[in-house]
Amino acid sequence: MFRKVKRKTDGRRNFDDRDTSFDTSVGAGGFHDDLAQYPHRLSFYKLPPMEEVTLEEFETWAIDRLKVLLEIESCSARSMTFKETEQVMEKMLAKYLPLNVPSKESSSLYQERKKDHYSHFILRLAFCRSEELRRRFVKAETTLFKLRYNMLSMTEQRNFVNSLDLPWVAATEEEKTKFESQLYACSYSSVRALLRAGSASGVKITDDQVRQYLKHQTFYKLPFEYVPDLLAMRTAFLHQGYVYVGQFQQSSLIISEYSKFLKEQLDLTVRGLPGLDEDDRLVPVLNNLSKGYISAEYNDGGNSSNGEDSEVNSENVNTFLSDMPLCMQRLMEGVSVNHHLKYGGRQQLAFFLKGIGLSADEALKFWRNQFTKSMSAERFNKDYKYNFRHNYGLEGGRINYKPWDCKTIMNKPNPTKSEYHGCPYRDLHRDELLVMLGKLGLEGNRSTDDVLDLSNRGEYQAACTKVFELVNRDNIDYALKTKSGNVDQSSIVHPNQYFDRSRYLKKLREGTVGKGAESQSGESQSIATQ
Amino acid sequence: MPSFEESDPAPISPSPAPELPSSQVHPATVSPTKHQKENDQDDDDFIPENKTKDDDGDQKMIFDDDNEEPELKSSTSEIEKPSIIQQSKPSSSKSSSSTTTTTSTKYKPSSADMKHYYERYLPFKSIFLWLNHSPAPQTDFTMREFAFEYKSGAYHRYNSFSNVSEFKSTVLKAEPTRFEIGAVYPIEPKLRKQVSKNVMKPQMKEFVLDIDLTDYDDIRTCCSGTSICEKCWKFINIAIEIIDVALKNDFGFKHLLWVFSGRRGCHCWISDYRARVMDENIRRSVIEYLDVLHVKGSKKSNGGVASLNMFRKPYHPHIERSLEVLKDQFIDVVIREQDPWRHEDRYEDLARAVPDYRLTNALMKYWKTTTDRSSADKWLDVDKYYQNLKIQSFDLQDWKKEMIFKTMYPRLDVEVSRQMIHLLKSPFCVHPGTGNVCIPFDPSKEKFNPLTAPNLQTLFNEDEEHVENTSLQPSIDLFNKYVRELMKEELSKKRTRDESKENLEF
């Protein structure tokens, strides 16, 4: 409670300060082209826009920012590293939301900062309306902030950080000496990476260099609540409730502050939304904006895009085995061998089957057929039925769950010995994986080595995509040769995408592909067409 | 199964209050979280707790919003005294609580026993003070959620009480097999129907940890599933040692309460103000800090190269310190007592954990031909083959440290700690499957032994009327001391909090 109160007044104080300077600048001859409004390239967006913009600016600015955010989401959906994301986004940002270095002409600086400022607030309005939208908006905006923070020069970073007024205390020299070895151990890898990035490639960084670097670092003490991610990764020293944050780690802190601030602000925005509904010019624009954002999601079973696959039922689901990615094949195998699956496996498979068009009744039939071979029907009804009905939104909170994408699957607890869920490319031992690949008909050639290599390097989705290409090689070749369809060769990020793509290729081959079937090739396309 | 309302009506309202029906009467709500939790523990868990219902039960539980009241009122009188299904005294069957999935063969404390226990033994007042942080009822207690679990398996969430006597009398009337403690909400949870759903966001809750021996099944050989013995309980004691020091030294928490969960694990409640106000994001990072083994990218199932990252040298101080604890006990607890890699079905785990194919294959080959080599022998075989094959792809000593870590480091239930809406069984409840009392204990005094923990039956044999004369009393004293210290700090802190609040406002 206490912290909240303090925080609020903090915000208010900032607001007041800025407000007065704002007033004087108006008095001094209007605020057009006045860069004093945007003293830094980066901003926490604490003040809402005050000036008028045209409806056209309103819309184009928002769409430009939306494009940037969607690209960021797509990068993270493809599990790109931050470095890769940086490379992709550099061009996007220069094109849609440039923020140039201050040496440039000041009038364009003002314009681009204004566009950045306004577009941010417009999208806040558009994306505050549901929990899901808010969560995604905060995530994408936080990444954007991080990208931009890293683009700032050292001086700019320092000036910006000082303007934020955060509650940190510098650690004393005594503390630094006392905890020298701990600070060294915690900072070692990040400092090394930092030094390596700063020096010519191939140069070895010695432990002594790291020590020297740390000697001149200022460390700040902060309550651990302020740096959750440093805590979770164990990359900072924690003692008696305080985290020791090196200057070089400041960005993490600022970024988490920004994300927290934005979340609070969105919660406030949504409360103010009803007042906006009176302006009938803005509401349609905002609705359209948020709609575009939603459709990048995977469309789950039971809706029209999957209609033609509702041929799947409890009896024939096994005949689709060859269209399923390895993780699901493994689960199917697990259930047919043990006539049972543990919780994680049940969930993963059940949502997938839901996604390929198995209806709630058929799903229940399927699971009952399997499970009752190892237990009484009574026990199934008592202990499991609820679970499966719950998955279809027929029980409890009545949430219509979506099939899990690879990321969700990877974020679940890893499978133990008697469990089958998770990602085989990540969880299986090399030998077991080889056996599974053999069952797919991939044996003893060089390509299986590629797959094993990819899985070894931690590029599980790439391994899965590779397997898809190997298994469906003939069908892909056919499709490319006859140019008969839309072959999507992007990386697999969702088990149902694998399935849909496989079905689509087969149908292409059989010539039974219908008109609407393009939508079969998964959600990555709908992102691309945004 | 009898209809839901008939089987447990009493929880609903301590006194029939017709003028306030909608606020007092709630349908038992099946919580998805709770449901998942049970499912996570999966099928080895004993069943009556499982929240799954047959069709009838479901319909009732979900759709009862409109028709609950009349039904309830009419049935209340009949069910005031629930039929006592099992009259037999608890047989002292702790040791025989072996793992079967059926319930009928298992001992459960009878309703009469439970009622007597609630009436005479359970220290309601202490629990009230613990949650309330002050002698006079305040929102910390009155807006706190309690959930009841019944013999039928029904689960009734969102109970709340305005004072300790209501708390006690409701429990006595409802006779749940156990009750659980949830979060503090912005309004009294029992009034939740009167406000919009998004107001019902949890505000505060103790930070809790749950450690369970079933999560150690891949390494323990003495027992599996729900059964435990002194040998495998050592894993829990080690876990307590490691987590306790991390919470105190690293996070600076002071008010830690370790509680036996009644069967095969333990809970830790951290009641510091600072811990109670943490949001879910911070809870997640605290638990991830502690939960070294599950960190993303770790490969629990094959223990291979990828996991080297989290053990990158130099080790984080927490890892280093934990390693010191584990190293000393590894030989005794794992190698000698558990001997986990003796038999064929398990030595693969060890061989596969070696991050070098040549070495793995050589070991597998050797162990296949020689039967019955103990884990100690095999642990040394790795050294021998490492040297013979002149392996250089990894450092043997580092790998051994990793293995020690992987076999013994505490295995935590992340979701229990992270979610604020998650409920946890209250201290001093009786485990419905064993009759054991979930007593708090002080790990700094002596190592806890679950096999000698107070059990409902032993307690009644000691003294049927006066708890002071039983072996439960020391635990109650311990708990009271804990509560006193917490309240003392709370009062002084609150004073400073209020003062600074005033300073800010005026």
Structural features:
heterodimer, A: 530 residues, mainly alpha, Transcription Elongation Factor S-II, Chain A, 4 domains, 4 strands, disordered N terminus, disordered C terminus, B: 506 residues, alpha+beta, DNA primase, PRIM domain, 2 domains, four-stranded antiparallel β-sheet, 20 helices
Structural description of this entry:
The complex is a heterodimer of chains A (530) and B (506). Chain A has 25 helices and four strands. Chain A is an all-alpha fold and 530 residues long. Chain A folds into four domains: 30 residues; 172 residues, Transcription Elongation Factor S-II, Chain A; 82 residues, Transcription Elongation Factor S-II, Chain A (Up-down Bundle), CATH 1.20.930.80; 176 residues, no CATH class. In chain A, a hairpin with a 2-residue loop joins strand 3 and strand 4. The longest helix of chain A is centred in the N-terminal third of the chain and has 26 residues. Helix content of chain B is 45%, strand content 8%. Chain B folds into two domains: 272 residues, DNA primase, PRIM domain; 118 residues, no CATH class. In chain B, the strands form two sheets. In chain B, strands 2-1-3-7 form a four-stranded antiparallel beta sheet. Chain B has a four-stranded antiparallel beta sheet with strand order 4-6-5-8, with helices on both faces. Chain B is globular and about 70 Å long. Chain B is α+β, with helices and mostly antiparallel strands. Chain B is built from 20 helices and eight strands. Chains A and B meet through helix 1, helix 8, helix 10, strand 3 and helix 16 of A and helix 3, helix 4, helix 12, helix 13 and helix 20 of B.
In short:
The complex is a heterodimer of chains A (530) and B (506). With 530 residues, chain A is mainly alpha-helical. In chain A, 60% of the residues lie in helices and 3% in strands.
